[in-house]
Design a protein that fits this description.
The chain is mostly helical. The protein is built from six helices and no strands. The chain starts with a helix and ends in a 9-residue tail after the last helix.
């Protein structure tokens, strides 16, 4: 019974953290006048807050996956333009690049699609992607330690 109670508390703390993180992200997106749908972190928040023990939720995957996928998207859009086939190609290449770099983070698969469809430039890599991924990792670290009483991450890199 104790393990079930602990698991329930952990699940509720993760859910609350996810809600708080989404709220903060929404506030930042409104302030920056960037639509929340153009910021690729909602599913990352769900993964990092809801399943913090999995490999894809660790900082290397979270931060690296978003950065690698965005770079792939930018390179593809610069070479091929914002065509639908280029968006599909960019997603496929990003999946391969995340595997090769050991930064596989499934939610980052949306990054190259956003980049190509919206014809994004290098500035998107820095803000919101890199800055947002680092801030999400820092938020998750503090939330898991302080609120959830859970040691996250299992490893930083």
């Amino acid at each position: 019974m104790q393990d079930h109670h602990r698991a329930t508390i952990g699940m509720l703390a993760g859910a609350a953290g996810g809600a708080v993180a989404i709220g903060i992200m929404e506030a930042f997106s409104t302030r920056a006048a960037i639509p929340l749908m153009a910021i690729p972190f909602a599913t990352s928040i769900v993964l990092v807050m809801g399943s913090p023990e999995v490999e894809a939720a660790q900082p290397r995957a979270l931060i690296g996956g978003h950065i690698v996928s965005t770079i792939v998207g930018i390179l593809v859009v610069q070479i091929a333009g914002p065509a639908p086939w280029a968006a599909a190609l960019a997603v496929g290449l990003a999946i391969a690049a995340m595997h090769v770099t050991r930064t596989f983070h499934p939610p980052a698969g949306i990054d190259p699609l956003l980049v190509v469809v919206n014809n994004m430039h290098w500035s998107f890599l820095f803000v919101p992607v890199a800055a947002g991924a680092v801030l999400l990792a820092l938020f998750a670290f503090v939330w898991h330690i302080v609120v959830r009483r859970y040691s996250w991450p299992t490893r930083w890199w």
